[in-house]
């Protein structure tokens, strides 16, 4: 008679002396006493029996059923090693019975009589009852933990689980916490797309166990309230304050959420980038729109409030364009402010070059590590013969793909060929004469210029143009000029621009 042995442990059961070795020895002794040969031993480690979706269990059933191996018995240590769910147990047993394979339990003596099958079903039901009781206790304990603000699952990236039991449930990870904070800060700025920020942080080492995050996981990270110190569980329909240190402030997290929503709800450029009305908005609470009004002999261009029945703003395009050009003239940077701006840009450029060098160094280390793995893989296949060709081909293909991807990124981080002095001269010609530059632009290029200079839009109220926040690139002008101290006006009708 021939048999296979199936043994299983989960982490908690190892503590209860149900180790794989203990089970296997008991099953082997059982077979030896009954002169049953053992064709194969299937070992399932760290897998719960709450479900039949276990890889080794499936492999065992496939071995017994699909391959028609002529097995007579499946030997298990206890019924609950095979399944803790009565339905799963009966389904597995039925699938094996079709091939003439009977289940034998070392610790539980039941036969194929009516009484034996009844006892077997009672034992399997008891295993399910025990599992249900444990599950109920676990659920109640997890609910209590959530109310205390404890995070009871695997630590998300940026955090670690502490060793002691009397500590917060999470502590910042020194290796990745600062990268998570950088990701939020970079994306909240609104100047970079999610993919651009993801690319940068991936190159700096953001990931798990040496593996980078996917772009989808990166997006989920930015939406996870755990980073502002909140515990959320969809399973238990719960959200509350955590007992751990947040990595970002509420304000920064909300800003990221706003930027994300802004990107998703952004209107089409085809609709809003109209050369006839370059100051027409794309998104804001009370925007202006542009349209043509028919007079006695021709049409006239107007900007107006789009709200039905609102006549607070109805201004000719020529008049608003004239006021806007005067507004740009007031923002043009003087020579002394330009010198300050040039110093800031030069310092930032130097930091950028150092950052590129750091990223290249990081990529070099990762490429070196992958090349070392590839060398060991070749040695294992060619010299020691410890792996088969199928495994070799799969692993080599995976490593080659990773190396090719990193090599392409390495090319991206070569020092840019930019003459900074010449670039600053060009910027001076633009920022020192914003009105002249505006008039030199082609109509279709003007919306992009407005978005770059005023990412939050400008306002129009009582024949005055202003902005709630000074464009960042014009800060030196405000720092060096007291006359601009009161230039901002309260927002009334927004002239925000498409992104």
What can you see in these coordinates?
The chain has 499 residues and is of the alpha+beta class. Among the domains are: 2-134, Resolvase, N-terminal catalytic domain (Rossmann fold, 3-Layer(aba) Sandwich), CATH 3.40.50; 159-264, Hect, E3 ligase catalytic domain fold (Alpha-Beta Complex), CATH 3.90.1750; 335-421. Helices cover 51% and strands 13% of the residues. The protein is built from 18 helices and 16 strands. The protein has helices at 11-15, 20-33, 55-66, 79-82, 86-97, 114-147, 177-188, 194-203, 215-223, 250-264, 269-272, 317-331, 335-384, 389-412, 420-431, 434-440, 446-453, 475-479, and strands at 2-9, 37-45, 73-76, 102-105, 159-160, 171-172, 207-208, 211-212, 230-233, 238-241, 289-294, 299-304, 314-316, 458-461, 464-466, 493-495. It has a 4-stranded parallel beta sheet, with helices on both faces. It has a 3-stranded antiparallel beta sheet with strand order 11-12-13. A 3-stranded antiparallel beta sheet has the order 15-14-16, with helices on one face. A hairpin with a 2-residue loop joins strand 7 and strand 8. Helix 13 packs across helix 15. It is elongated and about 105 Å long. The termini are far apart. Mean pLDDT is 77; it is low at 267-272, 281-286 and 479-499.
Name the poorly predicted regions: 267-272, 281-286, 479-499
Distance between the termini: 74 Å
What is the helix fraction of residues, given as a range? 40-55%
Percent strand equals 5-15%
Individual helix count: 18
Structural class: alpha+beta
C-alpha geometry: elongated
CATH superfamily of the domain at 2-134: Resolvase, N-terminal catalytic domain
Rounded mean pLDDT is 77
**Secondary structure tally: strands:** 16
Placed side by side, the strands forming the largest sheet appear as: 2-1-3-4
Name the CATH architecture of the domain at 2-134: 3-Layer(aba) Sandwich
Largest sheet, if any?
4 strands, parallel
């Amino acid at each position: 008679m021939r048999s296979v042995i199936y043994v299983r442990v989960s982490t908690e059961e190892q503590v209860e002396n149900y180790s794989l070795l203990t089970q296997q020895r008991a099953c082997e002794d059982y077979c030896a006493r009954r002169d049953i040969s053992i064709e194969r031993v299937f070992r399932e480690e760290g897998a719960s029996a709450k479900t039949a979706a276990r890889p080794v269990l499936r492999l065992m059933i496939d071995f017994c059923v699909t391959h028609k191996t002529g097995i007579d018995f499946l030997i298990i240590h206890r019924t609950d090693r095979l399944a803790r769910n009565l339905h799963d147990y009966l389904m597995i047993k039925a699938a094996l019975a079709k091939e003439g394979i009977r289940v034998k339990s070392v610790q539980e003596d039941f036969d194929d009589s009516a009484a034996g099958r009844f006892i077997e079903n009672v034992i399997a039901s008891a295993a399910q009852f025990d599992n249900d009781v444990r599950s109920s206790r676990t659920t109640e304990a997890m609910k209590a933990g959530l109310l205390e603000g404890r995070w009871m699952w695997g630590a998300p990236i940026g955090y670690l689980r502490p060793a002691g039991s009397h500590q917060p449930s999470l502590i910042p990870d020194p290796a990745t916490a600062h990268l998570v904070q950088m990701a939020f800060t970079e994306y909240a700025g609104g100047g970079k797309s999610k993919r651009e920020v993801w690319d940068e942080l991936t190159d700096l080492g953001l990931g798990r166990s040496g593996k980078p995050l996917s772009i989808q996981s990166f997006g989920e990270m930015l939406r996870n309230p755990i980073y502002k110190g909140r515990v959320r569980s969809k399973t238990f329909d719960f959200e509350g304050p955590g007992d751990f240190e947040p990595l970002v402030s509420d304000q920064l997290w909300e800003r990221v959420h706003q930027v994300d929503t802004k990107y998703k709800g952004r209107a089409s450029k085809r609709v809003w980038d109209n050369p006839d009305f370059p100051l027409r908005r794309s998104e804001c609470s009370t925007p202006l729109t542009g349209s043509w009004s028919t007079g006695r002999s021709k049409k006239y261009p107007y900007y107006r409030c789009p709200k039905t029945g609102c006549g607070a703003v109805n201004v000719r395009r020529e008049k608003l364009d004239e006021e806007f050009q005067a507004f740009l003239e007031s923002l043009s940077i003087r020579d002394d402010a330009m010198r300050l701006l040039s110093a800031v840009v030069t310092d930032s450029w130097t930091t950028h070059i150092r950052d590129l060098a750091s990223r290249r160094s990081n990529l070099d280390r990762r490429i070196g590590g992958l090349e070392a793995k590839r060398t060991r893989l070749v040695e294992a296949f060619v010299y020691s013969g410890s792996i088969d060709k199928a495994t070799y081909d799969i692993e080599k293909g995976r490593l080659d793909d990773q190396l090719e991807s990193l090599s392409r990124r390495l090319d991206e981080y070569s020092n840019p060929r930019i003459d900074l002095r010449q670039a600053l001269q060009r910027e001076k010609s633009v920022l020192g004469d914003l009105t002249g530059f505006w008039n030199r632009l082609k109509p279709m290029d003007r919306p992009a210029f407005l978005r770059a200079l005023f990412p939050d839009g400008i306002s129009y109220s009582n024949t005055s143009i202003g902005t709630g926040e000074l464009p960042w690139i014009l800060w030196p002008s405000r720092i060096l000029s007291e006359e601009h101290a009161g230039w901002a006006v309260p927002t009334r009708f927004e002239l925000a621009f498409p992104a």
